[in-house]
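Structure in, sequence out. Go:
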């Protein structure tokens, strides 16, 4: 599927989601691989390979009733089908749509899925990521997408929560960090980030990663920033048997990159 075909496919799924969510007053945010691809494209950075065309959306709701109302509207009005997983619908084109709720119905950032036997999900970051998101228009459809900093934060927490089950988050994170070395222009590095550039001996790659870490900190609440710091510190711990450092095989200088990212996060005040 070409880039334009993939974007048309995405719009066909998101148009009804946008309409139903707006009618119900539910804020939503595109996440997952589709969001990653759009963010990288907007920044002029090389995309990552996508394994599937699944679409993932985070929806900010107060109650399970609001969440059910959104799902029911998509089913009854737009022809989506139910799926055995509680968060998944199937589009009329037979593509999976995952709707992840967050907000007041999550306790201390942890979502306990209603009607399941103890299924939980960490959604603590989603409120911060939504607040720092930007609106992108695809045709007539307005889509909220995360910042690059928000994407990296979500990938770090996803890796922490499921790295024993899958290696895909480390692969994605490696690709994001590799491209993130280019997200700050040289003009910005020699301007607003000149002190950071000097700190890294004029190594623009590490200075760019530090600047990304600083942006992450500014977009996070203090609790979420401490959580991200803890993940990075654990990844750099010498005796950690599952250290992220070992899984970032696709990166040149992974330790230096994670140290620069951690320095940017820890040296910058939260929002």
């Amino acid at each position: 599927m070409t880039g334009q075909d993939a974007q048309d496919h995405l719009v066909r799924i998101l148009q009804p989601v946008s309409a139903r969510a707006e009618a119900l007053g539910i804020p939503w945010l595109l996440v997952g691989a589709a969001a990653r691809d759009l963010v990288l494209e907007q920044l002029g950075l090389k995309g990552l390979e996508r394994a599937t065309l699944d679409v993932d959306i985070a929806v900010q709701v107060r109650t399970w009733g609001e969440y059910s109302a959104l799902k029911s509207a998509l089913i009854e009005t737009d022809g989506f089908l139910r799926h055995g997983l509680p968060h998944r619908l199937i589009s009329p084109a037979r593509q999976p749509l995952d709707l992840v709720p967050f907000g007041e119905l999550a306790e201390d950032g942890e979502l306990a899925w209603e009607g399941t036997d103890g299924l939980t999900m960490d959604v603590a970051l989603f409120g911060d990521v939504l607040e720092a998101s930007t609106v992108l228009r695809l045709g007539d459809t307005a889509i909220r997408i995360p910042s690059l900093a928000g994407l990296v934060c979500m990938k770090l927490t996803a890796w922490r929560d499921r790295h024993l089950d899958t290696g895909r988050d480390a692969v994605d994170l490696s690709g994001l960090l590799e491209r993130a070395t280019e997200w700050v222009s040289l003009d910005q590095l020699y301007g607003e980030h000149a002190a950071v550039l000097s700190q890294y001996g004029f190594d623009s790659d590490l200075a760019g990663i530090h600047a990304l870490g600083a942006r992450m900190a500014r977009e996070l609440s203090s609790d979420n920033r401490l959580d991200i710091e803890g993940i990075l510190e654990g990844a750099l711990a010498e005796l950690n048997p599952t250290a992220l450092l070992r899984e970032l095989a696709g990166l040149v200088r992974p330790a230096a990159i994670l140290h620069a990212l951690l320095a940017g996060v820890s040296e910058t005040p939260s929002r």
